[in-house]
Fold each of these.
Amino acid sequence: MGARWLVEIVGDRADLDMLARSMSGTDPSVTDEGGKFVLGSEAFSKLADARAVSETARAMLSVLSGLVRLTLQGRSSFDVGSIYRLHDDRRRDPIVVVKTEHLEIRSYPPIVIQQRSDGTRVGRSRADDVAGLFGAAGRNLAMSKAMRLRNQANLGWVELYRLLEVVATEIPLADMAANGWTTKAELKRFQHTANSVAAAGDLARHGAETTRPPASPMSLAEAQGLVDKILRHWMIAAAAQSRGGAVDASI
């Protein structure tokens, strides 16, 4: 079999613990190995050196971080820590020294109990669908870009508008409304507010007022909620289509 690469993940332990419970058997995978969280992927086996592994892992983690921010309300990004080569005899060659780990105490999102038609009940975490969405993003350049853009601590009008434009490269605005993801009125209100200096101030997309300000401007919190809702619907639909199954719409 030969040596294979292992990449430690540095980030919020609560988020990583949830992912490890749901993604230990997927590709890419997240596993808990003695209190250290490890990113695994078949893609690493094709890489010859630690620099290439680090770059590939960092790109993956940027997308995964965006997904966690979107679906689990994560508040920080994941990064690459130590990189090892694991030999068949379980020896590890350390290549990169791990960075200082970020520690934050957080509560887990609630487990949703679902009752099946046969009367049995099963618990479901919102992290369970991250693997499917992560896989969908890995096969779709627009989704990967959207999750990288979503992986920001603070999203302003410009960033939110850019995210909507990325989705629109695959799903026209009219189709978003037709699919029931939002309404034409809400999309128009969002765009009008984002472009209006009077409504959005210095964070507006434009530097000068080009139209009459909106009568009922959208708040930035409402705007993020709208864009996140559209992102979730888009990714759920793509994941379900690519895997031929359903993904929990509650995320």
Amino acid sequence: MSNTIKSRTFSLVEDKRARLSNSNFARVWSSDLGTSWTTIRVGCRISMENTSANLTSTPRFAFGICSGTSNIYMDTTTTHWCGILTNAATWVTATNNGVLVYSVENGSGPNVAKRIGSTLTVGSAFGVANMIWDCTVASRSAFFLDITKGSPNFSFKIFSYTTQNSFVSGPDVSVDTLLTQLPLSSPTISNHGSSGAVTQAIDEATNGYFNAVNISWDRTSPAIEISDLAVVRLV
């Protein structure tokens, strides 16, 4: 269930993306970051195919970090993964000025979660909506996940597009904006905002230290596309 690479070009600029279609991937981060961090941020630009239809039966988009790359989220078993997991029964579509929005909140989620072996633990909801848009046009939104270590509770916070009705031609975030805002303690991008912090008990010493980004999507269609994935150490 490995992902593929998709190349799209907007305004003569090529954007090579990780394309998730009932697939997953994990990428080890730099040894300079290692496992001794206190707070990290995983960030990307994100977009999605336009099917013009609601998605039902609890679509699962997982965005987080893992221990190693052999047994990752969406594999039969997972060494150790934590992050956000969409938990709404239905993703609702809305169209504004010709641009598609998928609302992944709909009263439920996304949620903080962890998976160890075959055991999935879904925690509290963030209450953030409207994450992703039509990938065939320049409408890439920013998506950040901040993770702060604790003992035993890790803290998680999302920064994402939150405004459904205020854009005209799409919420396209440039790669320069993404990379400028990614290391800031309080990023500022138009129509984006931060969730409150949500906690989850995590035990790296027992279950495996995190050293990789791990993202998955359990639907063949529509596909999700990830651009410019990066990890930064905040503390």
Amino acid sequence: MNRRWTAILIGFVGVVVIVQPSGAGFGPGAILALSAAFTYAVSINISRRISGSETSHTMLFWFALFMIAGSGCLAPLQWTTPHGGDIAVFGLLACSGTLGQFMLTQAFRYGEVSFLAPLEYSALIWASLFGFVLWQQLPTPTVLAGSAIIVACNLYILRREIRARGRRIDPAIAGAHLPEA
């Protein structure tokens, strides 16, 4: 097994530390969060793959259409009619989500996934900040420890990627230095 996969598996240990499958952290919320992380990773990789042939606006349109269809199928299960202030919050959510998705699509169109993925860990900082400001909650020591493991593993992978790219030799340059036979 190579070092990248070892780091990925150790990073998953960080996820297990956060979720605490034997304790209070494991439940439907944790399962849904892990499912969301998996499907998000799939969507980022698909976006990166099709970004060469599709515009960002087209990808955003189809993403939004499938999100509306998917959430529309689930909405009747827990429907509550929104009231006055809720509609403004939904509008803010729609605008920020659309803008965020567009920016992510653009970022992954122009940047390498392995270099951009660690930047997304700023979401841990934002989530902690919003959690404190809105609900007066701080991350538990277990969450901080698991997050540190995950971030460390991803930084290790990023460092190895940068080193590997630095060692690669352009075949045209390498061929220019070969003695003629």
Amino acid sequence: MTSTVDRPAFYAVGTGTGGLRDWVTLLHPPYTAWHLSYVAIGATLAPHFVAWKLGGTLLAFLLAVGVGAHALDELNGRPLQTGISSRALVVTGAVGVGVPVVVGWMYGGLRLVPFIVVGALLVVGYNLELAGGRLHNAVVFAVAWGAFPVVVGYYAQDFRLEAPAFVAAGAAFFLSLAQRALSAPVRDLRRRAEAAHGQVAFRDGTRVHLDREGLIAPLEAALRASSAGLALLAVALVATRW
């Protein structure tokens, strides 16, 4: 890949050979950090904060979302163009989703069962586009990758939910809608579009040429900045409760 706009994602560093770089790409690093930030934000809003509980919840979401969900997503159509074998993706997806389910049951028992079931269904249903793809939409994405991590992060601290958890979950829901609104056209431009041509005509007579790179750049700049900003916010909130 000689051009940055020809890569399947701005964070893609893979070579298509199935090596380490493909595995790094599979993790979607900025997006994984973005959604793990919601877990930390939820935990820091809880009345009683315990660092090791946050660590365990972050690890569970890293495995389920960062590893498992993305492995299933790559299995479903190879959007990142990695050379990782289908068998390896199946095993990775099963382990990534299965380990948090088992550990969640061991830690929380019946108190965590609803979250375990919903989380597993959201990951598998969204990324494999089950039910004819009806679960693969902006609203389900905002619930699964935005609101849900906040609620679980809060609840895992002492097994109760209060108003701050739902308010923060609402914020994460709308932020995730914004994320998808930015990332969806970028994915199409990078992975489906061969070229883009056009221009903007301003009232003063100025005309600006538009191409793929020009359309992609501002959208991805917003995605990069949002990912970094939320990660730093989460770190700051954790530091205040440490």
